[in-house]
Amino acid sequence: MAEQSMGPRDFFRKEAAIADLALLACPGAEELCNLVDGHLVRWAREVGMDVDTFIIPSDCPRFQSGDAKGLVKASTRGDDIYIFVDPGNYSVTYQLFGYENHLSPDDHFQNLMRLIQAVAGRAHRISVIMPSLYGGRQHRRVSRESLDCAYALQQLRTMGVKNIITFDAHDPRVMNAVPLMSFDNVMPTYQVLKSLLKKNPEISFDKEKFIVVSPDEGAMNRNMYFSSVLGCNLGMFYKRRDYTRVVNGRNPIVAHEYLGESVEGRDVFIADDIISSGESMLDIGYELKKRGAKRIFCNATYAIFTGGLAEFDKAYADGIISGVYGSNLTYRTPELLSREWFHEVDVSKYIAYFVAAINHDMSVGSIIDPNAKIQALLKRYGVKE
User: Fold this and answer.
1) How many CB atoms lie within 10 A of CB 65?
2) Which of 29, 46, 154, 178 is nearest to 103 (CA)?
3) Which of 111, 225, 254, 259 could form a disulfide with 60 if both were Cys (CB 3.0 to 4.6 A apart)?
4) Angle in degrees, CA 304, 310, 314, rounded to 5
C-alpha cells in the first residue's frame, strides 16, 4: 500500500498496535528523537489520541569515579520501546578529575547497553535506532584485527533487542552476524533528491546534462540506484593505492582514476556514505572540474568533516563544488550548519514511518515505497512525464 493511501489514523488505531509506544534517547541523540516524536505525536493527535509525547525521560549519569549507570525515569512495563543512539556525537561531555571528556563511539554504545539493561525484563519489545552503525567502519577482519561491528550486534541480540534500524551502513553485509534479528539498512535516497530539487528546481536529469559518478567501487550500489531512478548514466572513480606503505592504518591513495562517459558540460552528482576528512571527495571534485564538469553536487549520509571545513570553503569559493547534502542522522557542528554550501537533509519523518509501522507489526514497504515517492517527486518538479 502506498503512503498516499495510508494516513496517521492507519498507524495509531489502538487495536492494531502491539503495545504502547515509547521512545528513549541516549545522551546525544535527543535532537533526532525529538523530531521523530513530533511526527508521531501529530499523527496520533489527528486520530484523537490525547498524547503530548512518546518520549520517556532517561539519562546516563556518572559517579565521581567516572562509572556510569542507565536511568529511566518512568515505567516502561509492557511498552514497545525504541532507543535512539548517535555513536558519532562527540559533542557530549562529562567531567572526570577536573578534565572535560568527550564521549567516544565506545562510550555511546555503553550508554545504549545501560538503557537496555534499565528496561530489560519489563518492556514488551526493544528496538534500537542507530542511524550511524557503531563499529561500522571496522566491518571486516584483516589478519589479527577485531570485528567490532559484528560483535556489537551480537551483544545487542543477546540483550534481547529485536530490531535494529540503521541508515546507509558502510557495509550492510555485517547484518549476517545476526541472522535471527531484524535488521533494516535504510537508504535516504528520496530525502536527498527532495532536498536537491528544492534547492535547484531548474536542474535537469537528462542524460546529456547530468551524470551520477561513484567516488569508488564501494559506493557503486548507492550511486547505481540514483542513476537508475533518475534515468541517467553512471561513471566511477577507482582508488589507485600504494601497497608498499601503510599510513594511518591503510595504504595511501596515490590517484583517483575515472571510468565512464565524458562529464564535460554536465552537472555531476556524487554520493557516498560518509565524508570523513573529505580529502577523497575534494580530489574527485577537482578531477571532475579538470574534465569540464559544470556543477558538482556532493552527497554523504554522514557529513562529519573530521579535517575541518576550510578546504570545502575554498572549494566552494573556487567553484569546484556547488553544494554538499548531508543528513541530520548524526551530530553536525553549528559551524557546518552555518555554511552556505551545506544543505541539511531531514530524515526524521522517514524514521517515524518505520517506528509507526513496526509498532503495528506492519510491513514498512506497505506503508512507504521510496521508488514510488521518487517518481512522484520527479513528476512534481516536471523532471519526468
Assistant:
1) 8
2) 29
3) 111
4) 120
pTM above 0.85, yes or no: yes
Cell reading at 14: 489502538
Contact yes or no for 297/323 (Cβ under 8 A): yes
* Residue found under cell 545522551: 27
Q: What pLDDT does 338 receive?
A: 97
Q: Which CATH class is domain 189-346?
A: alpha beta
Q: List the CATH code of the domain at 3-186+348-364.
A: 3.40.50.2020
In eight-state DSSP terms, residue 140 is: S
Q: What is the location of CATH 3.40.50.2020 in the chain?
A: 3-186+348-364, 189-346
Write the pLDDT tens digit of every residue in 131-144: 999 998 877 787 78
Helix (H, G, I), strand (E, B) or coil at 170: coil
Length of the chain: 385
**Cα 332-119-74 angle, rounded to 5 deg:** 85
- Cell numbers of 369, please? 515505497
Alpha helices in 1-124 (DSSP H): 8-11, 30-46, 105-119
Checking if the pLDDT of 160 tops 90, the result is yes
User: What is residue 2's predicted lDDT score, i.e. its pLDDT?
Assistant: 40
Name the grid cell of 375: 517518481
